[in-house]
Write a structure and sequence with these properties.
The protein is of the alpha/beta class. It is built from ten helices and eight strands. The strands form three sheets. A four-stranded parallel sheet has the order 3-6-7-8. A two-stranded antiparallel ribbon has the order 1-2. The chain has a two-stranded antiparallel sheet with strand order 4-5. β1 and β2 form a beta hairpin. α1 runs parallel beside α4 and α8 crosses α9. It starts with 5 loop residues before the first strand and ends with a helix.
Length: about 240
């Protein structure tokens, strides 16, 4: 693996920087390694590639030296956590929450999204250069549809901006039980949320055949299969759109 190419996160609890578990896309060695990996995968003869949850950056990542230097060079802004986040607190489940972000934070979040999209384009074109017929799908969290501003803040992800990429399929995490739990919805409201997501996507993406709704068929906690009636309710809400 590329040496010294880790992303750096800001720890809200200790107010210090810590090496992340992911690579930093601002290191040239990471980009070249990823391009090579995609080319190698295509050479195996696969029909397509799903870019899963890889091309995201969290709200407290990347403070690596190369990233901060590049941000300063391109925007004239220095990255100081004190100037990015308002009052930070822990919720009942132990998650760190930021109720308010500064203008510099939003500039940084948009800038990170732009960098991720540039890398995505590079990887997609590398794959299609090896095999022009290969299909490439990209994964998007449900917040990218239901709450785009939150998706940009929390994940540096913007589905609207990604529609400019040469993507064959947009894979949407329409996991109704996860959505129901996290948004504290009733069962019926969770189904309707999936329907609303589908409707909104059809307005953003011209070709409906490019939309892949990823449906939850297993309960994450119990590992039990979703009952057929429940799954059919989800499919019905999607297909009605």
């Amino acid at each position: 693996r590329p040496s010294r190419a880790k992303a750096v996160s800001y720890c809200f609890e200790t107010k210090s920087y810590t090496p992340g578990s992911s690579w930093s896309i601002f290191d040239p060695s990471v980009k070249s390694r990823l391009v090579g990996l995609y080319q190698d995968v295509v050479k195996t003869g696969v029909d397509g590639i799903l870019i899963q949850d890889d091309l995201i950056m969290y709200q407290n990542e990347d403070f690596s030296a190369k990233a901060t230097a590049r941000f300063l060079e391109e925007t004239g802004k220095r990255l100081d956590p004190k100037a990015l986040y308002g009052t930070v607190f822990q919720d009942a489940e132990g998650h760190w929450c930021v109720p308010e972000y500064s203008e510099t934070f939003w500039l940084w979040a948009s800038w990170k999204n732009e960098q991720l999209l540039r890398l995505a384009r590079k990887l997609i074109l590398a794959a299609k250069t090896e095999n022009p017929d290969i299909s490439v799908a990209m994964n998007f969290m449900y917040e990218s549809v239901t709450a785009p501003r939150n998706a940009l803040a929390w994940l540096s992800q913007s589905l609207a901006e990604a529609t400019t990429l040469p993507i064959d399929y947009f894979a949407i995490m329409a996991y109704h039980r996860q959505i129901r739990k996290e948004l504290r919805l009733s069962e019926e409201d969770a189904y309707n949320k999936v329907a609303h997501m589908t409707n909104r996507l059809l307005k953003w993406i011209e070709d409906p055949h490019q939309i892949l709704m990823k449906v939850q068929m297993t309960d994450w906690k119990t590992r039990q299969e979703i009952p057929p009636y429940e799954a059919n309710q989800v499919f019905r809400r999607i297909n009605q759109q």
